[in-house]
Structures are given as structure tokens and as C-alpha cells.
Specification:
The protein has about 70 residues and is mostly helical. It is built from three helices and no strands.
Length: about 70
């Protein structure tokens, strides 16, 4: 499994953004770009899992470091 690389605030923002975009998909009338709201699945899943593949590729992390 992937190592966690998202901190608490990062995860909260991702889950909230994902839920808002998915809700907008269901609450708005269909248009030519209506499917773009489904992009919210990405932030929702990464926020729930606590890991972001893009962060891993870039060597980034917002996860707090453990004190030794």
C-alpha cells in the first residue's frame, strides 16, 4: 500500500471539495461539460485514503513527521 503523505487539513479540504463537486454533478442540469464534476472522485478518494500519487511522484508530503 502507499505511504500516507497527506496531513489532516489537506485531507479535509480534499474530501470536502470532492463531495461538493459530486453533489454539483447530481444537483445541476446536464450540459455539455456536466461530466467534469465527476473529477471530484479523485480528491475524494485520495482524501479518504490519505495518500496522493502525484505527491509521491513529486516527493511532496503534508503528513506531519514523527518526532524521534
Amino acid at each position: 500500500m502507499f505511504r500516507k503523505n497527506e496531513g489532516t487539513i489537506d485531507r479535509i479540504v480534499r474530501v470536502a471539495l470532492g463531495l461538493l463537486l459530486i453533489a454539483a454533478y447530481f444537483l445541476t442540469s446536464g450540459g455539455s461539460n456536466h461530466w467534469l464534476y465527476l473529477i471530484g472522485i479523485g480528491p475524494l478518494v485520495t482524501g479518504l485514503l490519505g495518500t496522493c500519487p502525484i505527491y509521491s511522484l513529486l516527493g511532496m508530503s503534508t503528513y506531519p513527521m514523527k518526532k524521534v
